[in-house]
Design goal:
Helix 5 crosses helix 6 (207-216), helix 12 packs antiparallel against helix 13 and helix 15 packs antiparallel against helix 16. Helix content is 48%, strand content 10%. It starts with a strand and ends with a helix. The strands form 5 sheets. It has a 3-stranded parallel β-sheet, with helices on one face. The protein has a 3-stranded antiparallel β-sheet with strand order 4-5-8. The protein has a two-stranded antiparallel sheet with strand order 6-7. The chain has 475 residues and is mainly alpha-helical. The protein contains 19 helices and 12 strands. The protein binds one RNA strand of 76 nucleotides through helix 4, helix 5, strand 12, helix 10 and helix 17.
Length: 475
RNA sequence: GCUCCCAUCGUCUAGCGGUCUAGGACGGGGCCCUCUCAAGGCUCAAACACGGGUUCGAUUCCCGUUGGGAGCGCCA
């Protein structure tokens, strides 16, 4: 059996799109699974929409996801000569012919046919005219035999095909001399030795026409597999306005590439009841047979769950490396890495869905001065708790060993000394005092992570705050 | 409008004629744990779109209906 060669062929018209990324992932997984190669080809023949920056964005996105290609990136635009050559050979062998119908004429005839209740395919006006080079401005059309068998066995949809009569003689070269997408794709796939064309189901209707080109070229088409589209909430088409669709966006939101890949691979593909797949599992288990035929909605909830799952699994040094940029953006300053910070991040991974959230939750530890949430202060920093808070500040200040267990012991002493105060009564005020809010990891762990000096300073500052508001109230 | 495609809990899905009183996961409810928030454990609710066939037997096969999607460019 010959080598498995798949390709990812995006058009560089924006950022790496969610659906494109999944197609890339499927192609990559399929190639890896079978010891084959993935070829990256940029379909940039639409000059108006193609931009070099978006090509870079696609490469970056793929690299970030860990999808490595083996050959390319090739640019379709750089292969124009080869496309022209193939079209010329098709004309020479009378498989294609020149057509001088103008767009206006075509449009008019089309409207007339439709108005008369007919179905429009090219009416073949120039089909047998045998027009030569000198016929003036013209396009080139592929001659489609009426009885041609344009069917194929799709890797996902099974037996597929369309009646040749439904297709009509399609244009393969524009009047400006450039090849059209369908030919360019066929020629490139052929030249690049692609064995499996795995692409979005939006290409499903294109396939019969491409098969006609393979037939005209008298070559065997590759295997086709069309993967169902990803749709947005409500089963509607993904919209750039409503749905987040760019991989870069997810990256900026603090999602891990492992989570994105895992999420995407399970959209339309499954392996029994398994939900979590490492990159190794993806590339050893992925299988076209198990790809679904119906389109899938992208569920953000599952995505968040997966992201937290991977966050929890990340080795400490990697977690730090991932969060640091987000944390520095959060506080808008360079952040010094301390053991306390590392400890806090470790506690935070169980409480964060994304790196962005984690950075927000770690903020209190790296800033010099915190802002205390007013509502939290009103609820928890009341005069009644001030005495206990003072004793705690004292007890903590005297601690020689700033460890979680010593801090806990200090708490217990203070609690006992204040009439068996419940720990919750003291923990919340302290939490507000040191983090500015009501939410944090366990209070002993949080205090330990924050550090001796900052912790005591913040508690004392909170006590002063309580006293001053108490005074202003009695006025 | 025409061509093609799809249809299991809210969502992603398992199921490839009897094992289905339909399984898992996310999300949701409840309980436990608990210094807050999480995490974790246990638990509950939740689906075969509808109508005809085929068959001893249909979630599974066939045909319609309905609903959704894609394509119908001198775009890719």
């Amino acid at each position: 059996m010959s080598e498995i060669r798949t390709r990812f062929a995006p058009s560089p018209t924006g950022f790496l799109h969610l659906g494109s990324a999944r197609t890339a992932l499927f192609n990559w997984a399929y190639a890896r699974r079978h010891g084959g190669k993935l070829i990256l080809r940029i379909e940039d023949t639409d000059r108006l929409r193609s931009r070099r920056e978006s090509e870079e964005a696609i490469n970056d996105g793929l690299r970030w996801l860990g999808i490595e290609w083996d050959e390319g990136p090739f640019r379709q635009s750089e292969r124009a000569e080869r496309h022209a050559e193939v079209i010329a050979s098709l004309v020479a062998s009378r498989q294609a012919y020149r057509c001088r119908c103008t767009q206006e004429e075509l449009e008019e005839r089309k409207q007339r046919t439709i108005a008369a209740g007919g179905k429009w395919t090219y009416d073949g006006r120039c089909r047998d005219l045998d027009l030569g080079e000198e016929c003036g401005p013209h396009t080139v059309r592929l001659r489609i035999r009426e009885g041609a068998d344009l069917s194929w066995n799709d890797g996902v949809f099974g037996h597929s095909g369309q009646d040749a009569r439904e297709i009509g003689d399609m244009i393969i070269r524009r009047s400006d001399g450039n090849a059209l997408f369908n030919v360019a794709v066929v020629v490139d796939d052929l030249d690049m030795g692609i064995s499996h064309v795995i692409r979005g189901a939006d290409h499903h209707p294109n396939t019969p026409f491409q098969i006609a080109i393979y037939q005209a070229l008298n070559v065997e088409p590759p295997q086709f597999a069309h993967v169902p589209l990803i749709v947005g909430t409500g089963g509607k088409k993904l919209s750039k306005r409503r749905d987040p669709v760019s991989i870069q966006h997810f990256r900026a939101e603090g999602y891990l590439p492992q989570a994105v890949c895992n999420w995407l691979i399970r959209l339309g593909w499954s392996h029994g009841d398994q939900e979590v797949f490492s990159a190794e599992e993806i590339t050893s288990l992925f299988d076209l047979e198990a790809v679904n035929r119906s389109s899938a909605q992208a569920d953000p909830g599952k995505f968040q769950w997966l992201n937290q799952h991977y966050l929890k699994q990340l080795p400490g040094n990697q977690l730090l490396r991932e969060v640091l940029p987000f944390l520095e953006a959060e506080v808008d300053a360079k952040v010094e890495v301390t053991p306390g910070l590392e400890r806090l991040l470790d506690l935070l991974r169980e409480r964060s869905k994304t790196l962005v959230e984690m950075a927000q939750q770690a903020r209190f530890l790296v800033v010099d001065a915190i802002e205390i949430d007013e509502k939290a202060a009103r609820k928890h920093l009341k005069p009644a708790i001030a005495p206990a808070l003072s004793s705690l500040a004292e007890a903590l200040d005297e601690l020689g060993d700033w460890s979680e267990s010593e801090i806990e012991a200090a708490f217990e002493r203070v609690l006992a000394a204040h009439g068996d105060l419940k720990i919750g009564k003291l923990a919340q005020p302290v939490r507000v005092a040191i983090t500015g809010g009501t939410i944090s990891p366990g209070i002993f762990e949080t205090l330990a992570a924050l550090g001796h000096e900052k912790a005591v300073r913040r508690i004392r500052a909170a006590i002063r705050g309580v006293e001053s508001t108490a005074e202003s109230r009695t006025d």
